[in-house]
Amino acid sequence: MAAGIAEPGGVIAPAPSLSVIMAVKHDNPWLAQAMNSVLTQEDGDFEFLIAANACTDALWATLQEHAARDARIRLFRTAIGQLAFNLNLLADRAQGEYLVRMDADDVCEPRRIRVLRQALRLERVDVLGSAVTLIDADDRPVGRMDLPCSQEEIRRALRSRTAFCHPAVALRRQFLLDMRGYLGGFTSEDTDLWLRAARADATMKNLPDALLRYRIHEKQSTATRAGYAEVAGQWLRELLTAPSGYTILGFGTALVKSLLAPILPGVRRHRRPRAERHE
């Protein structure tokens, strides 16, 4: 894993070790690109754990071919097709101090690992995310998702909007284990984790740099009434656990969103790249 980084005076400060974790259930046209964007990072000192959950034999064979070419890849095959279960499995098996999330249809910027490691060396937060560039099925930029950066901004944002792009985060492994991992859910296992993290006063931050290209396509999971209802249920738990103005507002907002889900714009509301805007 990573060696230390020299500071003025010749003192070597420890740099956090990293494990990239990715779960994949179905083959897709972008899987090889996603994996290569991890394996060709400028900072290549990490392990790459992949959980193949309820996958076909053909996909498993494809993953084994990749693993045979790069010793950093560690494969796990499960019969359970739930994302939360497989992420928990990878967290348990990982050796890095931090877990870097990745999805099988997204693209890491070449500097992603380097920037994350440098930031985590300076400030060992529990959750570190970043802005992301939105791309379409043909890799064309279609927008950008800028997220709240500071602890207080993230906490405020959780009441009404996305505070983290899940595949763009790095999680301190021991923090995730202490939180008992992901607790399940159909589409919002990440929101559930952020709410529990906020209640536990976890340290959370987003970098303003766009370190991931987040793909928007027809086959991905998008905001649905069931998804918003699931989030409303999570906020109800928070309200019953720790009643306050904060949790009342969070639950009320999530409940309204679940009722208005068919007309909400979802991820496509985020701004287009500056070159495509007419201002």
Portion in helices: 25-40%
For this structure, the CATH topology of the largest domain is: Spore Coat Polysaccharide Biosynthesis Protein SpsA, Chain A
Roughly what is the average pLDDT, rounded to an integer?
A: 89
Helix and strand string, N-terminal first?
EEEHEHEHEEHEEHEHHEHH
Principal-axes geometry comes out as: globular
Number of domains: 2
Could you say which structural class the secondary elements and strand pairing correspond to? alpha/beta
Which stretches of 5+ consecutive residues score pLDDT under 50?
A: 1-10, 272-279
Could you outline the blueprint of secondary structure elements for this entry?
Blueprint: E1 5-6, E2 12-13, E3 18-24, H1 31-39, E4 47-53, H2 57-69, E5 73-78, H3 83-93, E6 98-101, E7 107-108, H4 112-122, E8 127-135, E9 141-145, H5 151-157, E10 170-172, H6 173-178, H7 189-199, E11 204-215, H8 225-241, H9 245-260
Parallel strand pairs: 3-4, 3-6, 4-5, 8-11
Antiparallel strand pairs: 1-2, 6-10, 7-11, 8-9, 8-10
Helix pairs in contact: 7-8, 8-9
